[in-house]
Amino acid sequence: TVEMAREVEHARGFLLQVTVAQEAEECGLALIARLGIDSHRAEMALFEAARARAAADGRPLVSLDDIAAVARLARRQRRTAFIAEFLAAQANEDEEIGKLL
């Protein structure tokens, strides 16, 4: 446990130095677009998770492997039936309000 705590502490300190490679950024953005996720938080969650993974490994650059490793966990909460239904209902309500105005 003590060793794990040291590793986490080191990764936290190193995190600010970790950047996302252009290839990994383009891949992540394309994935979000293909999934039809309309949220900037989706991008932030994906890239921050990938940066954390790279930092934990002591690497200063996020790779495609990092994106692939975290994508399922980072994206799943942004692509739910609830969200799709909520956005559809909101669009219908906006349309109704627009008609009434």
Descriptive overview:
The protein has 101 residues and is mainly alpha-helical. 77% of the residues lie in helices and 4% in strands. It has five helices and two strands. It has helices at residues 2-15, 22-35, 40-56, 64-76, 81-100, and strands at residues 19-20, 61-62. The protein has a two-stranded parallel ribbon with strand order 1-2. α1 (2-15) crosses α3 and α2 (22-35) crosses α3 (40-56).
Which labels suit this protein?
5 helices; elongated; mainly alpha; 101 residues; two-stranded parallel sheet
Poorly predicted residue ranges: none
Q: What's the main sheet like?
A: 2 strands, parallel
The helix tally amounts to: 5
Q: Can you count the beta strands?
A: 2
Report the principal-axis shape: elongated
What Rg is obtained from the alpha carbons, in whole angstroms?
18 Å
The proportion of residues forming helix, as a percent range, comes to over 70%
Strand content: under 5%
Structural class by sheet pairing and helices: mainly alpha
Q: What strand line-up does the widest sheet have?
A: 1-2
Question: What is the H/E order?
Answer: HEHHEHH
Instruction: Give the N-terminus to C-terminus distance in angstroms.
Output: 61 Å
Look at the structure and give the mean pLDDT. Answer: 87
